[in-house]
Amino acid sequence: MLGEYPAVRAALASGRVDPALNEKLAMLAERTGAPVIYALDTQGMTIAASNAAQPDSFLGHDYRFREYFTKAMASGATEFFALGSVSGRPGLYLSRRIDRDGRPLGVVVVKVEFGKIARAWIQDHMATFVTDADGIILISSDPALQFRTTRPLAPARRAALIATRQFGNSPLAHAPLLLDEDRARLSDGTPAVTVSLPVPISGWRLVHMEPLDAALRTAAARTRWATAIAALVTIAAMLAAWWLYERRKRNAGARAELEAEVARRTAELRATADRLQIEVEQREASDQRFRQAREELAHANRVGSIGTITASVAHEINQPVAAIRTFADNAAAFLARGAPDRAAANLEAIVDLTGRIGTITAGLRRYARRGAGSIGPVALDEAIDGVRLLIGDRFRAKGVTLDLPTGPEARLTVIAGRVRLEQVLVNLLQNALDAVADWRDARVSVTVGRKGRDVVLTVADNGPGIDAAIADHLFTPFATSKKDGLGLGLGIARDIMTEFGGTLDLVPAPEGAIFRMILVKA
Question: Taking every annotated instance into account, which residue ranges of this chain make up the domain Histidine kinase (predicted)?
Fold first, then answer.
């Protein structure tokens, strides 16, 4: 992820320390739990670090001698365990080379420390540790064993490790352990049972040693419990056998009669269960078809409104496209004048504008996507921004004022599905726009309020209002006051609100029409 981050690539390419990048690396290190994250240029010099603001900052330090730098530059990526040259704390360094156009820009390094894991392993008279390919103990429940060897090191290899100071001043002495499978012993000479597993880092192994006498005591205790339980089970079985024998003698005749009655009742119950199963399956299939048809109808309603929304979205896209053209021309002019800083500012503006276009197209794709989606916490301001994007320009083209909430009330969170909540709002706003399109001083407003634990949204217009002849059955399918309307939109909207656990109603108004949506606050 850091390799794709533009600010990292820009810092490595320029070789300049960017304070903003240091702050971002510090935030990333805090959230991931990494002790430090830093970037080295091709000469091994630190140009950005998450600990830049700390006394032990890595900025300006030369790490060209570190294997995690040399190996990453050579092979692209590596893992390297060593003592920190500044902090003095051991850890695993994960490094990766950053390239541009086939040319290396530098290396990004993330350090991982294992102190919490080692402390969690501490148990009396037990040893848990991790060894590397040379048999050197890297992480241990016993600090005295760290950086000791579990098997002899060749003199040349020992000299090489000491020379690189990978393990600081440790002499890499042999650990007072015996790991032979048949005669393993802890550091105090206690016989032990040893288990070893590979770790998904090249050459590492996890080893756990437990005193043999403790394991034998545990096994003996389990054996005693098993014997006692077996005896109890045997006695219980004998008593049960005797009781069954006596019962059979007393109830031989009654048993036959009972079995016959049980068989008859079983047959009746089986027949009843079969009928109920068929009814349940039919009801589930019918319910599934109903839910599928309802979702298909809701999706068709969204797709049907895409035609009226497209023009609004096209206008929203044309504005940033025109601005991109202007900034691009300005950048070219500044480059021709030898003003790269001003050209860079124009290019940054172009990046922001392309992000805006991506947001617009993503919103339109999300609105047209098939599927009911999940129901959960939805931020009202995000849904309102989506509605403003989808339908805002249509209001401006008609000269109708659209008031959408922007204050603290718009930042409430409700239980809903974002796409379907947008669908309900778009449906109500399009109906309101159609009602006031030819009205003088036309205005449509959306307000947000609280009612106990619920959130109340109202969509109001100052148009002619709803005809009383259809007001009572306005949410009934095919009931509409529009000449070319199908009368399905409000019915679908009410079904969606019901699925959210809320309501949608037409409320009396002195002028125009007011629709009230009640949603559960998250």
Answer: 312-522
